[in-house]
Amino acid sequence: MEESRKWAGWSAITVAAVFAASIAQMAGAQQRTAVEDIARYRELLQDGNPAELWELRGETLWKTKRGPKGVSLEGCDLGLGSGMVKGAYAAMPRYFADADRVMDLETRLVHCMVTLQGFSLADAKKQPFGNGTDRKSDMEALVAFITAESKGVPMNVGITHPKEQEAFQIGRSMFFHRGGPHDFACATCHGESNKRIRLQDLPNLLEPGDAQRAYTTWPAYRVSQGELRTFQWRLYDCFRQQRFPELEFTSDGSIALTLFLARNANGGKFNAPAIKR
Amino acid sequence: MTRKTILAVIAAMALIAGCATMMSDAEVSKKSLQVMKSSFKERGQAKLDRLDQDEVQAACSLYGTPDKVPKDVAQRLEQGQLKAVRYPADGKFVGDWKAGETIAQSGAGKQFNDDPTRPSGANCYACHQLSKQELSFGTIGPTLLNYGKLRGSSEETRKYTYAKVYNSNAFSACSNMPRFGHNGILTEQQIKDVVALLLDPESPVNK
Fold first, then answer.
1. From the DSSP assignment, how many helices (H) and strands (E) are in chain A?
2. A186 catalytic, yes or no?
3. What is the domain extent for residue B130?
4. B74 and B119 housed in the same domain
5. What is the pLDDT of residues A235-252, one digit of tens each?
6. Residue of B nearest to A183 (CA)
7. Are A109 and A141 in contact (CB under 8 A)?
């Protein structure tokens, strides 16, 4: 009697343990399926990319005579000589002697809109981002066109000019700068490999492979927003979630951080505009 | 001059040129803060003073990732932070786990586009696994599955858990986890609710 009761007790424990293990396994399987589903969703997205609509509109904007001076942007020097667009983005941000400043693509476009086309600075910076519905951004379209012309080109951002070196150092410092009520820095989410937020994989932007994959796939058409988003937008929205104040479009800080991240991606083949969730 | 000497001279010149352009760490931090102050603008509740750093933020930024903080620095920071923990006046550390689950799911609060009159969340699931049924969890922090089951709920555990959520840096300097109480992200009651989510035997964390 005593023996059989003991046996029954052990059986119950065994059954419970097996049951618990299978539940854990099921949860694991569900987890894997969720991750696989997301991977499949991302794959499907690559089939047709609405970014092409932004690229086409950007090309027209680039070639159309606009602004008070009625000239096109085709005379704009993106670093490889005036009007040279192919491969230009893969070597930006860079130092421009005519402005005596390190500039990313957006900043350079603003510069050309002011100096070549005669727009006021305020007008050139008026709408950096589309609002998700009817108000599309000319800046996002121009960036889509120009970045697409660097597809397949390896990233090659130099830090030879002293101002480029300074921007790199400042960008690096900004990357590690903890602040705000949450103590967040860029490094909080992007300083370690193989981490996730919820189910979203986080690139370690200090590691070449991850940095290349991340940087070379911006700009991107964001399905959830119905807009093509530039790297300026990417930084803007990261800082919002970091609980920082609002990042100013084409500010020195935004350019320095972009240069630091672009430089970390050197060697990676540029592959944008991409498409993301 | 021999070839060797020429090479040495060139190397020395390159070193001097390098020193002339590269800033020291202290110079970089100072310049970087200046640049940041001119690169952000205040919006809503997010004022420019959010770029200023307290002792912990400054020290942690200097070392980059938490694993690079020297032991003595970490100890000093932890002691200072632990002293600043304010425990509930009523001596109770555990609230309502259901309210805690809602707080753990929400990532709202403190962003420039958030309404400051609404309560913040803690977004625990962004970084931690907590319950079996929530599959959408992050991995920046360790899994907290069965947190209470593994630790029990002695007075010591309840107090420690409250303090850990209140100020993670009191036990682990430069942790990636926000200092929810210390920096006023969560209220006292909200922290108690999160503690309940972790410790209550009825909570999905321990089921």
1. 10, 8
2. no
3. 97-206
4. no
5. 999 999 999 999 999 999
6. B178
7. no
Unique residue bearing structure tokens 């100020």: B167
- Give the minimum alpha-carbon distance from B160 to chain A in angstroms, rounded to a whole number: 20
DSSP for residue A75: G
> Which residues, 6+ apart, have CB-to-CB distance to B148 below 8 Å?
B198, B199, B200, B201, B203, B205, B206
Say how many domains are in chain B. Answer: 2
Are residues B14 and B69 located together in one domain of the fold? yes
Statement to judge: residues B20 and B53 lie in one domain: yes
CATH class of A51-276: mainly alpha
A33 touches chain B (CB under 8 A): no
Residue of B nearest to A161 (CA): B21
- Could you tell me if B61 and B125 lie in one domain? no
Cβ contact B111–A240 (<8 Å)? yes
- The answer to whether residue A145 scores a pLDDT higher than 50 is yes
Q: Where are the domains of chain A?
A: 13-45, 51-276
Interface touch B178/A181, C-beta < 8 Å:
yes
User: A209 CB near a chain B CB, below 8 Å?
Assistant: no
Q: Global pTM?
A: 0.88
In a domain, B157, yes or no: yes
CA atoms within 13 A on the CB side of A69: 13
